UniProtKB/TrEMBL annotation:
The lineage of its organism: Bacteria, Pseudomonadati, Thermodesulfobacteriota, Syntrophobacteria, Syntrophobacterales. Keywords: Hydrolase. One of its GO terms (molecular function) is hydrolase activity, acting on carbon-nitrogen (but not peptide) bonds, in linear amides. The keyword Hydrolase applies. It comes from the Bacteria. It holds the Pfam family CN_hydrolase. PROSITE patterns: CN_HYDROLASE. Residues 5-240 form the CN hydrolase domain. SUPFAM superfamilies: Carbon-nitrogen hydrolase. This is CN hydrolase domain-containing protein.
């Protein structure tokens, strides 16, 4: 397993209607910025590009990277808001359906709630979780389930008409609870269209959060004793504009010191 992974956070400015097929082409344009970057994971936000599995699978093969995208899955007569994961060969590795579906999603998009089971997905660099938006930062259950399965890094794809400020605070709490690394990916700031209704999405603020890199037990003990806050866990925070941002996420410390961290604070062992 790799100690460090290289990730692309793609923070797009979508077309106003979430299901606009032009968002697929826009996603492909943004992926062009990833060419030659030797990435492990490329992550889009919630509901982007909404559709386009064939195109995304081809892009995963081309870039030889895992791709996480916000797609709507149809099963029978039901629609689900999912984080969909493709592997480096372009194969569909799995989907995570959103459990806590908003009134707007139900009434305007016809989205049904997922089953509330949060799954770990095995990659060539370790296990990841891909809970959607408020499922991760709003309640502790997703984090607990993923920690039980040995996940090292969570990709939390999101879309925010409101509560963007709560997002980072909630994710910091989940990261501290479970000694996770977390990448949170939002859209850029834009005006969305739901039928005849326009809603401003307070976009931007995508981030990467993980514990400080520590080399040995003494380093870990010194860090514990000096712990006054965990703001230094926030390694990257983007502004509100459309962008593709490349970042390294160090997973070695997460793996090396998670059990010591839980034991020191008396957290329940998984």
């Amino acid at each position: 397993m790799q100690d460090t992974i290289r990730v692309a956070l793609i923070q797009p400015k979508p077309y106003p209607s979430l299901d606009d097929p032009r968002n697929i082409g826009h996603a492909m344009q943004l992926l062009e910025r990833c060419r030659g970057e030797r990435l492990d994971v490329i992550c889009f936000p919630e509901y982007f590009p909404y559709q386009g599995e064939r195109e995304l699978a081809g892009a995963a093969r081309q870039h030889k990277a895992y791709i996480i995208a916000g797609l709507v899955e149809a099963e029978g007569e039901k629609l689900y808001n999912t984080a969909t994961l493709f592997d480096r060969a372009g194969r569909l590795l799995g989907r995570q359906r959103k459990r806590n579906v908003s009134v707007l999603e139900r009434e305007q998009l016809g989205i049904s709630a997922g089953d509330g089971v949060f799954r770990a997905f095995a990659t060539d660099f370790g296990k990841i979780g891909i809970p959607v938006c408020i499922d991760f930062w709003g309640q502790p259950e997703a984090g607990k389930q993923l920690a039980e399965q040995g996940v090292d890094v969570v990709f939390n794809i999101s879309l925010f008409p409101v509560l963007r400020g709560h997002w980072k605070v909630g994710v910091l709490t989940r990261a501290f609870d479970n000694f996770f690394a977390v990448a949170g990916v939002n859209t850029a700031d834009y005006n969305a269209l739901f039928g005849e209704k326009r809603i401003h999405h307070h976009g931007g603020g995508s981030f990467v959060i993980y514990p400080p890199k520590m080399l040995d037990k003494q380093d870990f003990r010194r860090w514990i004793k000096s712990l006054n806050d965990i703001e230094d866990w926030v390694r990257v925070k983007l502004d509100g504009l459309e962008q593709v941002h490349f970042v390294e996420i160090h997973l070695g410390t997460v793996r090396r010191f998670r059990e010591d961290f839980r034991n020191r604070f008396g957290f329940r062992q998984y």
